[in-house]
Amino acid sequence: MNHSDIIVAISNMDLGNRIRNVLNQNGLSVIDVCSSGNEAIRKVRMLKPDLLIINFELPDTTGFEVAKIIAGDKLSTVILLTNQTQKEYAESLIGDLDIICLNKPLNKTTLLQTIDLILRSKRKVKRLEAEVNELKKSLEHRKIIDRAKGILMEKLGLSEPEAYRKIQKQSMDTGVPMKDIAKVIIDTMQ
User: Fold this and answer.
1) What's the pLDDT at 106?
2) In this predicted model, what pLDDT tens digit does every residue of 28-74 receive, in sequence order?
3) What is the DSSP letter of 57?
4) How far apart are CA 174 and CA 167, in angstroms?
5) What is the pTM of this model?
6) Which DSSP string do the residues of the chain spell out, in sequence order?
7) What are the C-alpha distances in Å from 93 to residues 51, 99, 171?
8) Is the peptide bond before 105 cis (omega within 30 degrees of 0)?
9) Collapsing DSSP states into helix, strand and coil, what is residue 81?
10) For 136-181, how does the pLDDT look when each residue is reduced to its tens digit (9 = 90+)?
11) b/e 16-36 (16+ beta carbons within 10 angstroms → b)
12) Average pLDDT of the chain, as a whole number
């Protein structure tokens, strides 16, 4: 498993530390174990983990309420540890929040597989988001260049390929990106 930061929030600190040890032994990084909901919210906001594993029962609030806050603010993915009744209740209210319910008692294999699946999915989503942002940037640059081409075609009577070639040549001659050349054309010739 790749390096990812995890916080465990469970009122029984012995159990929390046992979960930490199991996860650490399997190549995961548990950066903190806390015992209350308010502490979990504070730690997640401060440490920005990839994953919060939280028990449904906590001394100051329910883990479900904390999970809704954390997932609702898109601070972290949450694994909510529940019994069957709590799971049914939570799943009926989760909607599209990034919360996964796991039944207690915890099974080491199920927990590790769930974490692995979550972390692989998060990496894939980040990669896709980066691709989308790159495509948006590229499209924006294309729009600017097309607008500058239109201005050159109108003002200088150039054909579309000639206008494009003029922007391209100026970019190559000056070492300035085409989008920046296009912006200058738009600003000065419009």
Assistant:
1) 87
2) 999 999 999 999 999 999 999 999 999 999 999 999 999 999 999 99
3) B
4) 11
5) 0.74
6) ----EEEEE-S-HHHHHHHHHHHHHTT-EEEEEESSHHHHHHHHHHH--SEEEEESB-SSSBHHHHHHHHHHTTS-EEEEEE-HHHHHHHHHHHTTSSEEEEESSP-HHHHHHHHHHHHHHHHHHHHHHHHHHHHHHHHHHHHHHHHHHHHHHHHH---HHHHHHHHHHHHHHHT--HHHHHHHHHHHH-
7) 20, 10, 55
8) yes
9) strand
10) 999 999 999 999 999 999 999 999 999 999 999 999 999 999 999 9
11) beebbeebeeeebebebbbbb
12) 93
Nearest-CA neighbor of 6 among 112, 110, 82? 112
Strands in 5-9's sheet, in edge-to-edge order, are: 29-34, 5-9, 51-55, 77-82, 99-103
Reduce the DSSP state of residue 30 to 3 states and report it. strand
The one-letter code for the residue type at 118 is I
Can you read off the two tokens belonging to residue 182?
Answer: 């296009």
Decide if 124 contacts 134 (C-beta within 8 A). no
User: Residue 116 is encoded by which pair of tokens?
Assistant: 């692995």
Which pair of tokens denotes residue 83?
């019994």
Structure tokens that stand for 94 in this block: 């989760």
Question: What type of residue is 5?
Answer: D
